[in-house]
UniProtKB/TrEMBL annotation, chains A, B:
Keywords: FAD, Flavoprotein, Oxidoreductase. Belongs to the PheA/TfdB FAD monooxygenase family. The keyword Repressor does not apply. One of its GO terms (molecular function) is FAD binding. Residues 434-636 form the Phenol hydroxylase-like C-terminal dimerisation domain. Residues 7-361 form the FAD-binding domain. This is Phenol 2-monooxygenase. Pfam families: FAD_binding_3 (PF01494), Phe_hydrox_dim (PF07976). InterPro entries: FAD-bd (IPR002938), FAD/NAD-bd_sf (IPR036188), Phe_hydrox_C_dim_dom (IPR012941), PHOX_C_sf (IPR038220), RIFMO-like (IPR050641), Thioredoxin-like_sf (IPR036249).
Length: 649, 649
């Protein structure tokens, strides 16, 4: 007898990508099942290094403080090379700051994958709509592509195989090494969507016929996490140590440990060694040769490995009419040295999660065909939105591989411009240059086909991530960072950059915008305010579009309660909401965010940005461009195009 | 049959003071028993408001991040008054910043007592040397004052009474209201010291014959924690609302709540109401009258109370030859409105804890009479050190009462200088003005009887708290705050403000000081370095005096490994210790601490500070004043005066 289970989303693989994806479904009521063939959470090692964007994602999941508390900050990079005058040994060439000015915050921190997974996993455990099963993997999959998105069917049918469950009262750790895809299905899952977060050897990728395009590189690396006992003076800095026998990348981490990436050549020269043949002693010997004449001994070694790098991108990121998705290592592989693997996986998942959540929460999308004559929009809004996952993330992976090629080359053959190449690399890996192409979820101003160079330089642009910035609350002057404020609830935000509202004309314009935002007829009211008769604080927290204000007026000339009610809504149980209006002002202790300056905003006229649930800018319009604002939510399928609102479920 | 238990320290009362005291004994091996007559931890309310010093104490206990994460920051204070031109209603007079420039950090945060207790309690649970028993209180006490400190005896004998223990397998909450001191002893405790942290009605205070000196004030206050529903515009600021019928103090807190302190007059005028007769409705009515014409309704009320303030200080803080101590509310009471009660209690305990720990860890004190001709030092070093608890904390309590009198008066009859009085109050309550008098633990330069006005203005002065400041690690440039670095381990610190060690002469002087600090003969080596043959990292972490360096040289001209080994010791298991040398330098992202400027230190010559385990400065000497340095540790009883070192246990 084969058991049958019905879920909304089946996630294959509970690594960083799968856990990040599952985090999007907290408090959603959507039924999610994660399966992983491993017997339990990853115990150790592997990926490390969290970019600022990834840390912002953790903030949005509510686990930022825990992650930061365990992470190690990187601040300086030392570059060592051989002596110019010849002779043996290495010399310090320069020390550069690990800092990207445009970012305004910590660029990178170090935390091992198992702890990252731990915090994301803990964050799921109290949510009964999300289940995780280890020692479980899929063995068959069938997808009925005739079923339309938004309908009630479950077109994905998956056979699962399980390791026999352990007695839950025993407290020993599992003794198995998990299961594999050769097993016999003992359970059938009916799902609406299936997502493969199942790593470089992805099972789902093979089932849906996606191929990885690209090659293996011609280098083998050893990686080792250990407490170094050394008189090398820069051991607590990020170091690139380039000697005649190769280049070490050394990165400090917590618990007095350091991670080394060390190239390992074949013992006899000639062909590359097989990573399986590489031993810890051989890696350490290679490291010693590079840092000589400095001494190097290993104290405690907590993890080590050896690998050969592939640089490949999947031919597709979604298949079967957007019923099956591939995320992270399942569709791109590259060298780990730029610390991009775990980050890109989590960011892929972060891009996909809110789209699935929105489509599954039927009430928030209009079910009918929506987008008129545009052939790309002939599909339902659901399908168009889901298709943007591949449209947005595949180019990112392709850019990453191109970057990685250059980076590996730099490693192999040190160039004279090592430091400027490094800086370019740091900027790239922070993701500041990512801009998603126009789509239903990234809308350019009417009539604009693509952004010209002048707009591209600006910092509030559709398709780019909303840059994090500091503002202060109008009500109490407490400083806040905007990305921390934007929790991953699935809500869009309309951020009204209201300009100088101490000036009467601008204040009137912002009040008028408030009326439009609250208007449940031809405005956005049905998205920004609770249903008639519901005015609890909880109802206000559940609206699909949250309205926020950032003004640049003299804060003491602004009275919060004089502003339109949509900006400081009243709830019968908790009074006014004081936490939606911010000033671009000096804080008492934390300095001035200078948002209007940094984002190049017009202080007189302001503007209005639609920020997607994942923190990317969806549209930017003038504060009086009501049709532009409404157009965005029509385009994404949340309002009827006719201008006649559809009732929300 | 009466059970018998032997402990080192018996603490009566597991409130903020008792828990803070117990936190000092983590990882010490000293046996501590806390008893409290309550059936369990405080469920709610009461004290609130944490001053910067208290938050530094939590950092030193390792619970700073948890406390900060739950706390609410205060940034602005609004002052409201009646209309000058007469007429009804109130107007906003001014808004001032809740900020003390000298402090350089957040002055105050809000967190309710029960959560403060929770974090301190959690921090004890994994330490098997510390036990806590609720529903337990002392009923008898006898103290043998003939026993000398440092001997092996247990001169304190206490009879305890217990509520019958609940079955540990039942999971209901205790149904009793605790026990009282009228019970019959069913257990005898033999202890070396007893500490009364048992609140304003302290049982121990009565047993040891200490009286509270002072009076009840003539005002009755209601206090209420609630979600306000109001159109009063400054509800998220700290507010002093002064109307004809009284002054409300309103303080924002987390979970959208606000705390109000409201004066309640008798219903018929005339005599003061009995606090027992005051109802929630009456408090709310008084509040409404004050904020009128603004509306005020209460959403959820999480706690309320009414009380009449006493302003009293105990005649003694220790008795019975320093065998019995009184801490916190047990020896001083005052109005809660300056938020000083819980803070002062915790700070009292913080002052006492390390002294008891040092005395109980025999090996760290010389047992014989130590201080030659000084009559104050005729006692053993143990007794002299313990006596400084009263010498240091009683004046603080007296100053606090004096301050409170003025503060309450200000409340009752608003003065024209309300704002400047407020600022003065903020400075006082931060504790910046506290300076402990000279003693064995606070040593002035030889020949100086008291500090002149010029020295008093300086910021690195024996008897004052080491001001918190930011520096960067020499090894990796990561920014650190010094008070966070000074964990409450019981260790003293010698902080070498090394000056500009890029200059050869100064570098030589600091190296020479290093030799003295490492010298196990006539220097401080037996306090700063592990025993011969022990060179594990753990052994280095257990030395009773930790050596740190803060230099102001160009950081890139300093090589850490060129410095004397005592500044970056080697351990056989973990290599060098990279975390003892700091630079007063610009950090990558967090600005410049400007320590030498703020503390008015000589950049050429530097100086050397002894910092006590509680973060107060014990002595300040020149970097070549070896005898001054040694003199401090002789004075406090950790080295023999003769100059011949005593072997440590």
């Amino acid at each position: 007898m084969v058991a049958t289970t019905t879920v909304d989303v089946l996630i294959v693989g509970a690594g960083p990508a799968g856990l990040a994806l599952a985090n999007w479904f907290r408090d959603s009521g959507i039924r999610v099942l994660l399966v992983d063939k491993k017997p339990g959470p990853t115990p150790r090692g592997q990926a490390e290094g969290l970019k600022s964007t990834t840390n912002e994602i953790f903030d949005s999941f509510g686990i930022g403080p825990q992650v930061v508390a365990e992470s190690w900050r990187l601040e300086e990079i030392a570059i060592w090379g051989t002596r110019e005058e010849g002779g043996s040994g290495i010399v310090r060439e320069q020390v550069i700051l690990d800092k990207v000015d445009e970012l305004g915050t910590v660029r990178e921190t170090m935390l091992q994958q198992s702890r990252v997974e731990h915090h994301m996993l803990q964050n799921l455990l109290s949510h009964s709509n999300i289940s995780i099963r280890y020692s479980t993997c899929p063995v068959t999959v069938e997808i009925d592509t005739s079923c339309s998105h938004g309908a009630d069917g479950y077109p994905v049918k998956v056979g699962l195989t399980h390791e026999t469950q352990h007695d839950s009262t025993s407290n020993g750790s599992p003794t198995t090494n998990g299961v594999d895809e050769q097993g016999v299905a003992d359970e059938t899952i009916h799902a609406k969507y299936i997502v493969g977060c199942d790593g470089a050897r992805s099972w789902l990728r093979k089932q849906v016929g996606v191929v990885l395009e690209g090659d293996l590189t011609d280098s083998v690396f050893g990686v080792i996490d250990f407490v170094p006992k050394t008189n090398f003076p820069d051991i607590r800095r990020v170091c690139y140590v380039r000697s005649a026998t190769g280049t070490i990348l050394a990165v400090p981490r917590s618990n007095k440990e350091v991670r080394f990436y060390i190239p390992v050549s074949s013992s006899g020269g000639g062909a590359l060694p097989d990573p399986k043949d590489v031993t810890l002693d051989r890696i350490l010997a290679a490291a010693r040769a590079i840092v000589s004449p400095y001494t190097l001994e290993a104290g405690a070694v907590s993890w080590w490995s050896a690998y050969r790098v592939g640089q490949r991108v999947g031919s597709h990121f979604s298949r079967c009419h957007e019923r099956a998705f591939l995320v992270g290592d399942a569709v791109h592989t590259h060298s780990p040295k730029a610390g991009q693997g775990m980050n890109t996986s989590i960011q892929d998942a972060y891009n996909l999660g809110w789209k699935l959540r929105l489509v599954l929460q039927q009430g928030r999308l209009v079910r009918s065909l929506g987008l008129g004559g545009d052939p790309a929009a002939a599909a339902t809004p659901h399908e168009a939105l889901l298709r943007t996952y591949e449209g947005e993330r595949r180019p990112v992976a392709q850019d990453l591989i191109a970057f990685d090629r250059g980076y590996l080359k730099l490693f192999a053959a040190p160039s004279a411009e090592f430091d400027s190449e490094m800086l370019r690399g740091m900027k790239f890996t922070t993701g500041l240059s990512i801009r998603y192409p126009p789509s239903c979820a990234v809308q350019l101003p009417r009539g604009v086909q693509d952004l010209g160079p002048s707009l591209l330089k600006a910092d509030l642009v559709p398709g780019k991530r909303l840059q994090d910035f500091q503002v202060v609350y109008q009500a109490d002057s407490i400083a806040a960072r905007i990305q921390k404020r934007l929790q991953a609830t699935g809500a869009f935000r309309v951020i009204v950059f209201a300009g100088d509202i101490a000036e009467a004309g601008q204040f009137a314009a912002v009040q008028k915008l408030g009326e439009f935002l609250a208007d449940r007829g031809s405005g956005l009211g049905q998205l920004t305010t609770p249903s008639e008769g519901e005015d609890s604080f909880a109802a206000w927290e559940e609206v699909p579009v949250e309205v926020l204000v950032v003004h640049c007026a003299d804060r003491h000339k602004v009275e919060l309660l004089a502003m339109h009610e949509v900006y400081r809504p009243w709830s019968s149980d908790q009074g006014y909401d004081y936490w939606r209006v911010f000033a671009d002002a000096e804080s008492v202790l934390d300095g001035h965010g200078r948002v209007y300056e940094r984002l190049q905003l017009d202080r007189q006229k302001g503007c209005c940005a639609v920020v997607r649930p994942d923190g990317y800018v969806g549209a930017v319009v003038d504060v009086d461009n009501f049709s532009g604002l409404r157009g965005y939510f029509e385009g994404v399928g949340m309002l009827e195009v006719s201008g006649v609102p559809t009732a929300r479920l």
